Amino acid sequence: MNLLSISQAILAEAVIDTRQRSLELLCDLDEDQLLGPRLPIVNPPLWEMGHLAWFGEKWVLRHAGKRPPLRSDADSLFDSSAVLHDTRWDLFLPRRAATLDYMNQVQERILEVVHRGPTAEEAYFILLSVFHEDMHGEAFLYTRQTLSYSRPRLEGQGVRDEGREEGRGVRDEGRAKPHSLAPRPSSLVPLDGPLPGDVQIPGGTFHLGAGRDEPFVFDNEKWAHPVPLRPFAIARAPVTQAEFAAFVADDGYRRAELWSQAGWRWRQAGEVLHPMHWRREGDGWLRRDFDRWLPLEPHRPVIHVNWYEAEAYCRWAGRRLPTEAEWEAAAAASGNDLSAPKRRFPWGDEPPKPTQAQLNGYSLGCCNVADRVAGDSQFGCRQMIGNVWEWTASDFLPYPGFVADPYREYSEPWFGTHKVLRGGAWMTRSRLLRNTWRNFYQPDRRDVWAGFRTCALPS
Ligand SMILES: [Fe+2]
Description:
Blueprint: H1 8-26, H2 31-35, H3 45-64, H4 74-78, H5 96-116, H6 120-146, E1 198-201, E2 204-208, E3 225-229, E4 232-235, H7 241-249, H8 261-270, E5 278-281, E6 284-289, E7 292-295, H9 307-317, E8 319-320, H10 324-332, E9 389-395, E10 419-422, E11 438-441, E12 450-451, E13 455-456
Parallel strand pairs: 9-12
Antiparallel strand pairs: 1-4, 2-3, 5-6, 6-7, 8-13, 9-10, 10-11
Helix pairs in contact: 1-5, 1-6, 3-5, 3-6, 8-9
This protein binds fe (ii) ion.
C-alpha cells in the first residue's frame, strides 16, 4: 500500500466531503428524531454523530498522533466496542450543538494533519476514518428508511457532474455542482425493462481477494489467493421487484419446503409474509420509500430482503446464490482465463462514472436493472457495482493468512456469523468500492440495502 501517493488535496476533499454528507443526512432531524426509538438495528443518530468524531480522534489524533483526548468522557460515550448497543439511548449525550462542536474540533485537527503533510500511518488512519464515516452514511440512510423519516436532501440531488473522473480509490464520483444542470446525455436515460438471462463463466483458478498494489484495503480483503471454480452461469442482473412479487404470489412465504430450517424459523417467528416495507394495495403491492408509499417499480431490484428470503426465492426459482468467489470472478475476470490479471471494476480499472454505476446517493433510489450498460463486466453482467448490495451464498470468513488490522473490531468479531454481500448500493460512496470489497451482515438483516442475483443450478 502506497498511501503517500495520495495527494493532500484529495485527502482533504475526502475528509470534508464525507462530513458534509453526514450533516446533510442528519441536519433536518428534530430532537426526538435525533434520538429515535430503541431498536436493535439502528443507533440513536445523535450518538452516531459523536461516534464519528470519536473514531477520527481515536485513530488519527490519539493513536497515530499521540495526542491527549479532546473530551475526557469520549471513550465512555462513543466507543462502539465498549458501550453496549441498547444502552446508547440512556447515556448523558452532549446535545446537538455540543456534538457538532466536538465533530468540528476533530475535523479541524485532522485537516491540520493533512495540510502539514501526514505520515503514511496518519494517511492510513485518515482514510480509515473517511471510509468509516462513509459506511455510517449508509446506516444514516437505512435508519431514515427504517424509521419512516423523510427523504434527505443531498447537495446536487437530481443533477450529476457528467465529465468527472476520480482519483484511484479515494475521490468520489458524481459529486454534482449547481452549474452541471445540463440535459442528460442519452447514456444516462434510464433503460426500461428487465434484463433477463444468464452469462456463462468458464471454470479455472481464480484469485479471490485484493492485490498488493491497492492503495488501501481492509484486512478482510487480504490477499488474493487461488480458488478453483467450476464453470457456472450467473444472471446478468439482480432479481427485480416483479420477479420477487411472483414468488410472493406463489405463496413463497407459506411453503416450508422452500426455506432452510433457520430461514423458516425466522419467517415463522416474525410471521413474515412479504418483503419489509411492502403493503397490499388491491391486487398489487406498494413499497414504502422513506415516508412515502409508491407502487412497486417492477424492473428495479428487490431491496430490503434478507439472506433467508433470498435463499427461499432461489429454491422456488430453481436457482442458487453465487458464492463470493463466483461473484467476484463474474465481476472482475478480464477474459476466459480466470487466472489472468483481473479488473478493479467490472468495466476495467478506471474508477466509477455515473454512466457505469448507480452510486453516491444522489438518485435517492435504485435504477432499473437494465440501466448502466456502460458498467457491464467482461462477461456481460450489469450493475455488479452499485444499485443494490448483493447477498452471496458465502459465510463471512477470513482469507488464508488473515491478520487483523489495528481496527480489530472491523472484521474479526463477525467471522462465521455473517454472510458476505458484494458490489455496493445506490448510496454507497464510490471511493469505498472495488470488485474485491466485502460487506457483511447477519442473515436476518432486511433493513439494509440488500438484494441479490442468482446462478443456475449445475446441470
Ligand atoms: Fe462505527
